[in-house]
Amino acid sequence: MLSTVTDAADRDQRLHVLSDCVTDPDPRTHRTLMTGALPRPADIVDTAGLRSLLYENGPLPPGAGESVAPFGGK
């Protein structure tokens, strides 16, 4: 995930990392990533915070925000 965030930041994309959807097996590494490395190129939010960001400019258009089928799913 760190390489993906770095690559996206290099491409000047706006990034949000969902803190309650990522983890590292080593709690110390996870804490360092969430508080030190990742906040520079990305906004760290939880899923509730992301929902607020999505709706702060009014309701989403129909179909937006619906869950996406897994790879190969329908």
| Number of strand elements | 2
Kindly estimate the percentage of residues that lie in beta strands according to DSSP.
5-15%
Described by strand count, sense and barrel closure, the largest sheet is:
2 strands, parallel
* N-C termini distance: 26 Å
Shape: globular
Helicity level, as a percent range?
Answer: 25-40%
Order of neighbouring strands in the sheet with most strands: 1-2
Number of helices: 3
Order of helices and strands: HEHEH
- Uncertain segments: none
Gyration radius (Cα, Å) is: 14 Å
How would you classify the helix and strand content by structural class? mainly alpha
Mean pLDDT: 80
What does this structure look like?
The chain has 74 residues and is mainly alpha-helical. The chain has a domain at 15-54. It has 3 helices and 2 strands.
Features:
globular, two-stranded parallel ribbon, 39% helix, single chain, 74 residues, mainly alpha
Task: Break the fold down into its secondary structure elements and pairings.
Blueprint: H1 2-10, E1 16-18, H2 27-37, E2 43-45, H3 47-55
Parallel strand pairs: 1-2
Offer a concise description of the structure.
The protein has 74 residues and is mainly alpha-helical. The chain has three helices and two strands.
